[in-house]
Write a structure and sequence with these properties.
Layout: E1 2-8, E2 13-21, E3 24-31, E4 37-42, H1 46-62, E5 66-67, E6 77-80, H2 84-88, H3 93-101, E7 111-114, H4 126-134, E8 144-147, H5 166-171, E9 177-181, E10 200-204, H6 210-217, E11 226-232, H7 242-245, E12 259-265, H8 268-275, E13 286-288, H9 296-303, E14 313-315, H10 323-330, E15 335-337
Parallel strand pairs: 6-7, 7-8, 8-9, 9-10, 10-11, 11-12, 12-13, 13-14, 14-15
Antiparallel strand pairs: 1-2, 1-5, 2-3, 3-4
Helix pairs in contact: 3-4, 8-9
């Protein structure tokens, strides 16, 4: 018997498959469209193999894997970036994007990842993004863009210089997923943001400027299903208040929204207390308040909520909850991720992503 699962979010597109034959379990996993890796385990009895399979399936579904009848087709993706050596040689992201646009593959690419560019702490990817916008006709299948896929050795997240995405939104009316890493110099749209097809928006940063929050809160995104915002801290760009986040807690702001992430916040307790009884919970499947400074104060507010039970998943990983509160969350009739408990005795508490 074979069971096949897939997991997708703004960063991942992977599969997990388990097959049982009497006393043998075969697990395959990896990125969708690849052969993946394989692990084979043998057990003393068929009953033990069956129990192990059920346990593993339970663990995967708790992490958000969804069972599928058939495997999804492979996305045609392209990653473009400038290495240290290439930057030393004078190569630029704009040059590499321009060369890519002249290849036959450009017409087939569905997912485009922009990695590091030359001196990302000082220069913006604006010229390269403008090239994509001007040449959108050469990218008819493009549905997903990730700009800023680099690690801290390439550039600290709060140092990444971002760009103005106004032209990109206008040039790609069929775009479905946009992931932006870094918020310094970021402009989502110089005009009121409207996009008919966008389904997922993630902004990953050390601190989210209030102007970006306001732009999103006032946007018309009728098909948005997934919204994840790294709130961050004041030292690295966050200059908003709880009041600025309240629009996201109202049902119907984005009528198709199923996943809301207000993550990586130093005011996680205040967010938790505010959203615990908010109307947006009536339409969500997943509420993500992970990677922040959530403590028992915010935890108790969530546990007292009359609306949390309607969720499928509550993601609180990386938190400062006590063991007693963690036990209470595990009793809830939904998937609750309370992994990565931090030291609750620490005087100073920090979100997971700041610098």
């Amino acid at each position: 018997m074979k069971h096949y699962f897939e997991y997708q979010d703004s960063k991942s597109y992977k599969f997990w498959q388990i097959e049982i034959e009497t006393t043998t379990l075969t697990v395959k996993y990896g990125k969708i469209g690849t052969a993946g890796q394989e692990k084979v385990s043998s057990f003393e009895t068929a009953e033990k193999a069956q129990k192990e399979m059920e346990k593993l399936i339970g663990e995967k579904t708790k992490k958000g894997y969804v069972k599928k009848a058939d495997a999804s087709t492979k996305k045609i993706a392209r990653r473009i970036g400038v290495s240290y050596d290439e930057a030393d040689e004078g190569k630029t992201l704009a040059e590499k994007v321009s060369a890519f646009l002249e290849t036959p593959q450009a017409a087939e690419v569905e997912s485009l990842v922009i990695a590091a560019w030359e001196e990302p702490q000082e220069t913006s990817p604006q010229e390269a993004l403008d090239l994509l916008a001007i040449n959108s006709g050469k990218l008819p299948q493009l549905r997903e863009i990730f700009v800023g896929d680099m690690d801290s050795e390439e550039c600290e997240i709060s140092w990444i210089q971002q760009a103005d995405y106004s032209k990109l939104f206008a040039a790609f009316p069929a775009l479905e997923r946009l992931h932006i890493k870094g918020s310094t110099g970021l402009t989502l749209s110089s005009l009121p943001l409207q996009h008919e097809k966008l389904k997922a928006l993630t902004i990953e940063c050390g601190g989210l400027p209030k102007e970006i929050i306001k732009t999103i809160a006032a946007a018309r995104l009728p098909h948005l299903e997934h919204l994840q915002l790294y709130i961050g801290v004041e030292d690295y760009g966050f200059d908003g208040t709880l009041e600025d986040l309240r629009p996201f807690m109202q049902k119907g702001l984005f009528p198709q929204l199923k996943y809301l992430g207000l993550v990586d916040s130093e005011m996680a307790d205040s967010i938790a207390a505010e959203i615990a009884q908010a109307s947006v919970l009536e339409q969500l499947e997943t509420l993500d308040l992970s990677m922040g400074t959530l403590s028992d104060e915010g935890g108790r507010a969530l546990l007292a909520s009359t609306k949390i039970a309607g969720l499928k998943k509550l993601d609180l990983h990386y938190h400062y909850l006590s063991n007693d509160i963690i036990k209470e969350f595990k009793k809830l009739p939904l998937i609750v991720d309370v992994s990565e408990q931090q030291d609750t005795e620490e005087e100073w508490r920090y979100p997971a992503v700041t610098e």
